[in-house]
Fold each of these.
Amino acid sequence: MNAQESTFAAPTEPHVMQTYGRLPIALSHGEGCQVWDTAGRRYLDALSGIAVNTLGHNHPRLVAALRDQVGKLIHTSNYYHVPLQEQLAAKLCELSGLTNAFFCNSGLEANEAAIKIARKFGHDRGNTNPAIVVFEKAFHGRSLATLSATGNPKVQAGFGPLVPGFVRVPLNNLPALEEALAQNPNITAIFLETIQGEGGINPAHMQFLKDLRRLCDQHDLLLMLDEVQCGIGRTGKWFAHQWAGIQPDVMPLAKGLGSGVPIGSVVCGPRAAKVLGPGNHGTTFGGNPLAMRAGVETLAIMEADGLLDNATQRGGELKAALEAGLAGVPGFVEVRGYGLMIGVQLDRPCGALLTQAVEEAQLLISVTADSVVRLLPALILTREEATDIANRLVPLIKRFLAAPAP
Ligand SMILES: *Cc1c(COP(=O)(O)O)cnc(C)c1O
């Protein structure tokens, strides 16, 4: 370790509310999958702001488009037509096969809209006490409704009473789901992440997704797939459910859609698209021209540069390198995921790896569900960078697993 690396020290923030456990660095600028901190140290970014910076940092075409947009209009309000909304909605519908989009500013807002759609879908059918099926280990956000839908007691602790109207079942367990439907005639929707992100990179099985589609059709329920983290090309398809060849009725999106500019959307098919009407829902910032331009450009650049294929190729290489490097190492369980949404399951809590990755390997990663190392690099990742992530991470994990328990 050189002298510079020994100087990690958390900046003091006496005025910022202490809601995050932060690493002891502050980032100043980036280029592609590289970022630099305020002390001049360079990192390989294998997290891209938690699946947000789809195009990496400082993408020349995105930056030019955003500069152009800032000089024209940033915000107008939804009192007026916003032509870029229709442009982005049309593109999302073309890519998903769905029919209409609503725009907001974040993942939880997209999920709030989905929950409101599910409830009103029930009310429209004379069901004044609608319920929504949700899943164990789910994460849908931190507003009261979305934390109530979330299946993590740590997210809910201290904020009761929870919003009622959610029925929880285990993921990938069809009999449990059928039982819940049989017991509760008020259920109007089934709501899940196509691939659970915060819960530890747990994919809904393809057959389970097909079964859900069939059950929703049979029982007149909405299938609502939270693709806030796994959507927008992350898994090598535009949307993760496309691997299973099905379509949802309601699909919340956010994180990667604006490549760093805050944005959210709920995209709906014909059964859900007309549930909300004038006066039922809205947001001041949602659908503003800057965010819409970011979405339009992100999708156009992804298409022009073949980033879905890149996610599949680089993700395959990264997974293979991690599996090869960790095979047989005591404490390593498995590598999971699709494309560039990858989890490395260990047999023990490994939060300590976050700091070790920063300080000893100049690598930005995340640890979720206590014992899963999560990798969500930008979709522009090169082959060399995929190899580089594995070359930095494998020795780190090996050293961590070999160390005696603290
Ligand atoms: C991040 C995330 C959310 C919440 O998004 P915010 O923008 O943080 O509100 C919801 N659902 C999933 C699947 C997520 O990964």
Amino acid sequence: MSKAQETVLEIDLKALKHNFEYLKSKLDNNTKFLAVVKAFGYGSGACEIASHLQELGADYFAVAYINEGVALREAGITKPILVLHPQAVNLKTLIAYSLEPNLYNPKILKEFINIASEGKLSNYPVHIKFNTGLNRLGFCKNDIAYILSEIEKTDTIKITSIFSHLAASEDLNEKEFTLNQIANFNLISKILIDKLAYKPMLHMCNTSGILNYPEAHFDMVRGGIGLYGYGNSEEENKKLIPIASLKTVISQIHSIEKGESVGYNRAFKSNSFLKTATLPIGHADGIGRQYGNGKGFVTIKGQQAPIIGNVCMDMIMVNITNIDCSEGDEAIIFGKEISAEQLAETTNTISYELITALSQRIKRVFLK
Ligand SMILES: *Cc1c(COP(=O)(O)O)cnc(C)c1O
């Protein structure tokens, strides 16, 4: 791994392979793997991540929005792509790029059938989502008759899969709730499948579901955060490797006398002599203001340097009083030693939020 000379997000594609293979090792041989690459591949770069996973044998991809799917197609992704949260206004684009919609309520089902009929499509692959307790997106059990009546009237669409999403798969205190979601899903999907002349795939598990609920793997699983190296528990984190390392470099070192202040609004006031390093990364890059004023830290020469004062748009200042370092030296924001999960914890958030918030301004470097 090279030494950073500017702010970079280094992506270790070998670690991605390790994580993919680890998650796959939890599955039966015939269970498919859908790789979730929404939000720029959790900040890592959706096209590069998806291309690599396509080579490694991922069966399916998912994104949240249609434009994310378009970007994957333009980057040469040929595997099926499920759009988890399509908006009606973009459905023609979805079809133009052979993306597959999640249809989650009567309104979007109707709108999609209308557009599919106009376009004289036949058997276009769609995915029907049921709400089993997350109360976010999805048909309810009582909609089954409606879905069937709409499906019977048309041959424009074909249900490729029926799916649902777990609300608390990482939280074993909620095991009873989760098992109830799984039982509901089994029930609902059976009622629907019994009325169809073919058998759609079933899927329900995100990363924590893959790890905690093998009985809910069904025909396919939808792995996201685990691919990027986080497993939602200490035990699982040990088996996964964070793929992204966020590094930067010391732009300038200041000596701060007792009584001086550092940064905007003079939020930090020094009560003794200290040294600070200014780093070229700020809240516009995704290191939010909540990491300022002593909450977050970076690692320089293996030692923690707390962020002092307010986080600026393009810079942070860190306390390096006891660290032997120079301008031009590398600073690690997170990586394999200090994980994004650990940094996120300093502000009561989760790895998902920190890694997906990293701005596109940060250069991504892919290590083969
Ligand atoms: C984001 C998402 C996933 C992936 O979840 P992870 O916890 O990152 O594995 C799976 N399914 C749906 C519906 C999602 O929105």
Amino acid sequence: MHKRREFQLPALVPVLLVVVTMLSAQANGHNVTKLLASHPSLSTFNHYLSLTHLAELINSRTTITVLALDNSAMSSLLSSNPTISTVRNILSLHVLLDYFGAKKLHQITNGTALAATLFQASGTAPGSSGFVNITDLQGGKVGFGPEENDGKLGIFFVKSVEEVPYNISIIEVSGVIPSDVAAAPTPGPSQVNLTDIMSAHGCKFFADTLLNNSDAMKTYQDNVEGGVTVFCPLDDPFKQFLPKYNNLSAAGKVSFLEFYAVPMYLSMAMLKANNGLMNTLATDGANKYDFTVQNDGEQVTLKTKLNTVRITGTLFDEQPLAIYSTDKVLLPKELFKADAPTPAPAPAPDTAADSPKASKGKSKSKSVPATADSPADSPDGDVADQTADSKNSGSRFGVARYAMVILLSFWVCHLLH
Ligand SMILES: *[C@@H]1O[C@H](CO)[C@@H](O)[C@H](O)[C@H]1NC(C)=O
Ligand SMILES: *[C@@H]1O[C@H](CO)[C@@H](O)[C@H](O)[C@H]1NC(C)=O
Ligand SMILES: *[C@@H]1O[C@H](CO)[C@@H](O)[C@H](O)[C@H]1NC(C)=O
Ligand SMILES: *[C@@H]1O[C@H](CO)[C@@H](O)[C@H](O)[C@H]1NC(C)=O
Ligand SMILES: *[C@@H]1O[C@H](CO)[C@@H](O)[C@H](O)[C@H]1NC(C)=O
Ligand SMILES: *[C@@H]1O[C@H](CO)[C@@H](O)[C@H](O)[C@H]1NC(C)=O
Ligand SMILES: *[C@@H]1O[C@H](CO)[C@@H](O)[C@H](O)[C@H]1NC(C)=O
């Protein structure tokens, strides 16, 4: 047997810091939250860029133009109490995927151009509804409108706010670009089909198992509105695990499936900040069914007495629902034996709780203030990002970056010996 090499951490830290800084700088040449912070008249807009996670998407791209709205334009946008998803759609129509500094705006070739937007890139926008028409008007004015504008361009350039050529230009415009499509009500979280999202992103076996268990499925659905975070095992590990699942008692199966969801919304940033014991939808009195959230550097892990799993991706993140995938099947100690060989613990079906569970979940959830959510810079992101824009996905990029850091640090360790 090999004797394990001890990593010399103190010696490594500066090297790691340099590596991390290099990688971060590549990823984040600009920080839109920071750029907007010195403009109080745009503070609501800035707040909503963070809340909708658009800030992360903006920071992950270059050659981009943000059409900023002042606080009064934002309050008229918010006056109809749109859902956060609708606000996200509307604001993503205000992020142009090209660089327009003040100078370029006034010198558009032939006086008019169509710009693609983040709304169009999100895949949410049908047809050409995600494009913005920019036209130089008489008297040096620049007008903006949706592509279909009936000859009306009612929104105007006000001033340049910040320019970092040719990475990001932030300009203030006179109001919200009208778009029925972007402003259309977006389904709230209770209408989101949880299992469809999981199936489409690598957790199909878990989703199918959940769909086949009406009791567990109902617990999930009942909790979504109040906030739920799901940690679903990826298909390969879950497929291998299925014989053990099928060995559980009926009540054991329900608790097992409910064990993978926490009755509150947790963004990746919150997971990184809040380590500790988590109750799950299966927690019921003496049947603890809990696990520990723990950070290993930037990597978030979940841990029970039996094993530890890593979060590998963000499948969905829109308050109050978050879905993450895990690299292995986390084992609740209530259903599996501790002394079994680690990769394949033997199930103990009869220890399953057979008592019916009346109320669960919500009542035990910690209250998490909505504003504690989502620093704009969280590298882990949002579903539109992953589904429609995977090349620029903050989350995948984040994972890749950390994987690189880990690989590099091992390589450095190797060199040091
Ligand atoms: C522009 O973006 C590139 C690539 O992300 C980055 O290397 C560069 O530093 C950025 N420039 C400025 C002025 O921020
Ligand atoms: C961006 O700026 C905000 C506000 O200054 C700051 O809190 C955040 O950490 C920054 N993000 C990055 C990735 O530097
Ligand atoms: C500008 O107009 C000319 C003449 O109508 C046309 O040939 C050219 O393609 C246009 N350029 C752009 C960038 O639209
Ligand atoms: C933009 O809208 C104006 C006014 O309706 C129209 O004349 C112009 O052709 C449009 N530009 C483009 C590039 O579609
Ligand atoms: C979600 O979609 C699946 C099929 O993809 C369906 O069987 C299930 O009933 C749907 N769930 C809800 C809550 O609509
Ligand atoms: C669905 O559940 C039933 C029992 O409730 C079981 O017999 C069947 O094998 C399950 N199917 C799948 C695909 O898990
Ligand atoms: C299922 O349970 C039985 C009895 O406890 C056990 O012998 C068998 O190995 C288990 N099968 C799996 C796949 O765990």
Amino acid sequence: MSEHSFATRAIHAGQEPDPRTGAIIPPIYQASTHVQDGIGGFREGYEYNRAGNPTRSSLETQLAALEGGASALSFASGLAAEDALLRGILKPGDHVVLGNDVYGGTYRLLTRVLAPWGIETTTVELGDLDEVRAAIRPETKIVWLETPSNPLLKIVDIAVVAEVAHAAGAVVVVDNTFASPALQQPLALGADLVVHSTTKYLGGHSDVLGGAVVFGDDTHFDAIKFQQFAVGAVSAPLDAWLTTRGIKTLAVRVRQHSENAQAIAEWAESRPEFERVFYPGLASHPGHDIAARQMSGFGGMLSLALAAGPDAAKAFAESTEIFQLAESLGGVESLIGYPPDMTHASVRGTALAVPENVVRLSVGIEDVRDLIADLEQGLARIGS
Ligand SMILES: *Cc1c(COP(=O)(O)O)cnc(C)c1O
């Protein structure tokens, strides 16, 4: 599969027709255990479903192919994947360097779940390499980055940060949820591991929760696979199957998400109600050149700062009709959110806090004329 291009791999990797019946879609193996041919006589290695399930395996094959990885593991959620990764690599006394606007749940996991077990975390501005170098210590095992970031769409040069981290012997992890592998392939840029919330663009239809770790090589596979097996936050067969189905249309969906978001960003830049538009596809975005180099499109996420302040931002988030007020992102339907009270409530008052006048859009693949008309009526309604 690796010789084929992205859209082809997304549809065919791990998706061989059922050899017994020819069913073009492999069945959902909705079973908790597998019969053994004599004690220890496992068919194709399957025994008990916490250890392995054929539907999960086909998703894992597909995920590895999407990122150009050696292998992948799929989990019940993005945070379950992150937790297995962190516990598989770290031990008490180790240290993590974390971008200062990564997903709030990642920060919460490190500082509230893992900190009591002896893991230390320092947040840094990843665009400032001196700050990154200064934060790295002998105990630093992981440098964790997210680009574009959430919700301010900051862009980090993956190759440059990877070089600094590798010089210090740290493992480089990229949360590639926002870009999706359709737009950005961190392993090829020097990352060691990629994590995903497959809940977002990979699943793509707001109907399933999931997460993944994708491995550039075998170094950490056994340790993280052991966490998956020993703790058990695996994806259920139906969830794995729904994610696989979503992934098959990823390339076309992401193209449309990006096209719609670009049009909305350009429209928003022309409106005085917004004092700032955060979208890497705009030439005015400080990370535009890096994004143009390391991504093959700019994605469907954008944030808007309301000139009239926090109350106007909250009112605007409640005034749209097609853009529905909800957490999450990456589905075919457009969503709007007010990060300070919603996705980023857990990081208020920390280094990761978000400006209070910002709304975040997850631009869906509806007709963009309807989307812009919806935002226009929202502005008219709040009279801002
Ligand atoms: C949603 C999200 C996560 C967490 O994933 P869940 O599936 O909700 O556990 C991690 N990183 C990013 C960037 C996310 O958007």
